[in-house]
Amino acid sequence: MKLTALSLLMLVSTLCCTLVQAAPSSGDVPYYGEKFHHDLASGISNDDLKKNIQFVLRSFHLRVNGSYDQIVNGCSGDNCYQHVSLGYDGARTFLLGSFYLVDEGHGDYAVKDVYCDSIRGSDDFRGGNAPAPGRIPDGNIVNTEHTWPQSRFSGRHNKNMQKADMHHLYPTDNEMNSIRGNNPFGEVVQDRKILKCKVSRFGRASQGGADVFMPPANHRGNVARALFYFSVRYDLPIDSRQEATLRKWAKEDPLDDEEISRNDAIHKMQGNRNPFIDFPGLEDSISDF
């Protein structure tokens, strides 16, 4: 069969489109694009892996039905999206007024507190702004924790974007939030003070050095994966002592259904995902954060 130049061009175009729009393999996450999954399977690591993650997180995405996202420098239309900020109030409204909101029935609502591992209901607010759909509750009772402290944000990236990035925001008891402050996370061997919530600790670290904050066991892996994400997304280093602890916590407290659902929900609202949730153990391919 003799092909004309036009028919040959159409054939090549069809083959290219077929390759680009290949259906994701089982377990693949379309958000990251086909190349990212191929590179992971090929053993990409360290700085090369960080750069690939950054490219995916910072680029425009073109959603392709039944296929991988196309990662592009720019696009338009309903299927085009990228990481956007809801603003700090918008982020808090979604997390505290929706995702972590607990319906207790009879018109009463509560909100989860991850540092005390408890549910804070309307009785805890005593006339203050109690939890409710679409509402930011009284911050003197339950505040929003920046797992990566604001005082340690990157100067190279938009600080409002960092402040409102929901991948590191969690509802916490206000007093516990203040005690944690901008102290690093670590394993406490000697308490400096007795905390109101016994599931968390603050004091001398097992590795020595500065005092550290130790959250409940069921939140330690969440902290680790949030900080791994933030470090790569915003080009921020994690000190070696804290990094060693975070790696340990990521193994001891693996993913649960809530963390997976949270990642999906933030993707819908904010337009990006945490790869350290989507690919458990991904931190093992990065030797130094």
Automatic annotation (TrEMBL):
InterPro entries: Endonuclease-I, His-Me_finger_sf. Keywords: Hydrolase, Nuclease, Signal. Residues 1-22 form the signal peptide. SUPFAM superfamilies: His-Me finger endonucleases. One of its GO terms (molecular function) is nuclease activity. It holds the Pfam family Endonuclease_1. Transmembrane segments: none annotated. It comes from the Bacteria. Belongs to the EndA/NucM nuclease family. This is Putative secreted nuclease. It comes from Bdellovibrio bacteriovorus (strain ATCC 15356 / DSM 50701 / NCIMB 9529 / HD100).
